[in-house]
Amino acid sequence: MQKVLDNNYYDLFINNALIPLYPTYYDFTHLNQTLSLEHIPVESMNICDLGLYPYSRFSSIYTLSSLASIDKSGITAVQNNPDLSLFGKDVFIGIIDTGIDYRHQAFKNKDGTTRIQSIWDQTIQSGSSPESFTFGSEYSRDLINKALQSNDPLSIVPSVDTNGHGTAISSIVAGTSTNDQRLHSVVPEADLVVVKLKEAKKNLKDIFLVPDDVLCFQESDIMLAARYLVSVSQRLNKPIVICIALGSSQGGHDGNGPLSSFLDDLAQIPGIGVAVAAGNEGNKRRHYFHAPVPQFFYNDFELNVGNDDSMFSMEIWAYSPAQVSVSITSPNHESTQLIPPAINSCINYTFHLSQTDVWINNIIFEQNTGDQLILLRFKNTIPGTWHIHAENINQDSFSFHAWLPTGDLISDETYFTNSDPDVTITSPGNTRSLLTITAYDQFNDSILEESGRGYTRLGLIKPDIAAPGYRIPCALPGNRYGTATGTGTAAAHTAGIMAMVFEWAIVRGNYIQMTGNIINRQLVWNAMRDDNNAYPNNIWGYGKVEISNFFKVVDGA
């Protein structure tokens, strides 16, 4: 078994510059020009392995941007204009998600052939891996067409989407539209390149105390998926828009981290765009913020834990120059001592009355950001109100953020009692060059309550733009149709708009140096803004996406 698949090995990030210093028998998986994965044997898994190895070397856990029009974004005006008529022809849409139901009518041409260029299914090991990758199975357009002509398609291409999220996202961007409006995708002439992610390794779930039955993904697999999509695009010399309808609340919400940095670099390359969901954490009460109060050097806040959340993690990120110590008090009034910051410690405390275990990593210098991170991990947690005391040992006023996990990693019954809806955009949406999309209800022009809010922890303006995201028609596995809601659908909608720009700029030769970052700025400048809001703001970003304004400026259309 490949070590990247083997739960007996941790997959830890390592800088490529360090690899020549290691003995030749060490095993690495290449990620990009900067990073690889080092596969380290797990002899007996210990929660404090995160402590033995730095936080920055572990992948973050990612979840789906919950699922659950077109005229609102000016798309129809552009497509009906004979001088433009942009439908995504000769542009790839890259999907990193739960897979795709390739047998669905939404992904077929009129002659019954597929509109999918290739599928890399990371979960199937019986086929041929893509060139320069060591696991999973790649299914080409020819093989998918052969399967579609067979009485037993899955015997030839066994890749399926049992969740439906990836199928829905793919269809919103680039599905084949139906005459009855059950589906009206943005770029029905674009081709799809799809990666079905494998689930996060159990050892990574165990490190962050994620229940075994929760669907989630690991950061390094998403990076490999992005690398694959770019390799297909460059091999066939076609532009690509990568749609990321996934998110994580781990990390500093500042655009640092391996995946964020990698995607940020890709968005600077001509012919590569990245559309990212802002996440659906805006109304989940999973963010707490303590603003500095003069002459107060401590803060107490409360965490309500629901009945179904016996294990989870939480992160506290403090602003320099504070040095923060923490203590934790259970609902039955047992308390830890005050835990001071250290270079790389891991302290386990057992609350004897409840038999709850808490691991505290109070890291004075987190390597990716240089800021203080306090990682709290709870196991066998009793429900009720937990109290957390934070204190600056410098005895000066200070400030910090705290975040709980995203998506279904915890239930809605675990939350901060004095929560803050701001700074809830999930990674990698806090990254400068990526187009970060929030969602609004296109029927009444109101923001979706669940949409993640900015700004980033360091004050960068995010989200960039808002797009329709409420009950968007989509395809579902099994040749069914339905609707989807959330920022993932808004990201899919906007990915299609980015593909239209690439078709005009690169495919038609109007501006062959067009990058995802340039499209980002162009869509921001040409967004629709109403008179009732000041822009930019942390809810709408720069306004609602409106592609016809862009072409009026650049093409005189």
Automatic annotation (TrEMBL):
Gene Ontology MF: a single term: serine-type endopeptidase activity
Keywords associated with the record: Hydrolase, Protease, Serine protease
Main enzyme class: hydrolase
Gene3D superfamilies: 2.60.120.1290, Peptidase S8/S53 domain
Domain of life: Bacteria
EC number per UniProt: 3.4.-.-
Signal peptide: none
Keyword Protease listed: yes
GO biological process terms, semicolon-separated: proteolysis
A Pfam family of this chain: Peptidase_S8
Family: Belongs to the peptidase S8 family.
Designated name of the protein: S8 family peptidase
